[in-house]
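Entry 14. Structure prediction run on the chain below.
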Amino acid sequence: MRSETLTELLALATDIAIEAGNLLVARLNDVRTGVSSKSTATDMVSEVDRESEALIVRRILQARPHDGVLGEEGASRDGTSGVRWVIDPLDGTTNYLYGIPAFAVAIGVEADDEVVAGVVHDAVRRETFRASRGGGAFRNAQAIRVSGQPLLAHALIGTGFGYDAEKRRRQGQRLVSVVPQIRDIRRAGSAALDLCSVACGRLDGYYEEGLQRWDYSAASLIVSEAGGNFLREEDSMVFAAGPALFGQLHALVRSA
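Output returned:
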């Protein structure tokens, strides 16, 4: 794909993510209305999730009517251009509903199943993480790099938990084995923001089970372009860290 096209795609994704983020912030005081559940009683979705996704899809198709779309809240459209937009209109819904300022809009752009541009916008902190294939990773205008931490015992690691009770039990058991081997653990409640924290060095590494494509599409490229390693395995386990730490984190979690 031409660099000019990548630049255009990234600029469009950035503009749309910021617009959707503004919607989320504007609706923050209304979040107790229109709340329902999805996969389990604890897996919540709100009218704002759906409004944000509708806004994003509308803006994409206005600009690029031949592209495909895959959204967390049900948007699905086959395109004819070879480009597909993978959308999480509100990553961190539970945080949002409780007024915890850790949520984001994530938009990944894929061409031939490869992520070529990605944006994760934290509207509360006014931080926009973005990357294009081969173009580096940025937080607002500043280039970012992953941590160079080489020691697992000194590593601050992020993770998350699923909504199914049995999965939570299994994840808790794994955590019991992981925590004594690292500096400490963080659980922010937004996979996209956790991955961006790896990309900019706020976390040394991250792992989580059960993420969907919209959770990591944009942020996976941001991690890679920031010099990090990202892996999603067939059982849906995701890992991200700097090169010096990645193998150690993967081995520790897999043995836990």
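Helices lie at 3-26, 47-63, 93-98, 165-178, 191-199, 213-225, 243-255.
Filed with the rest of this week's runs.
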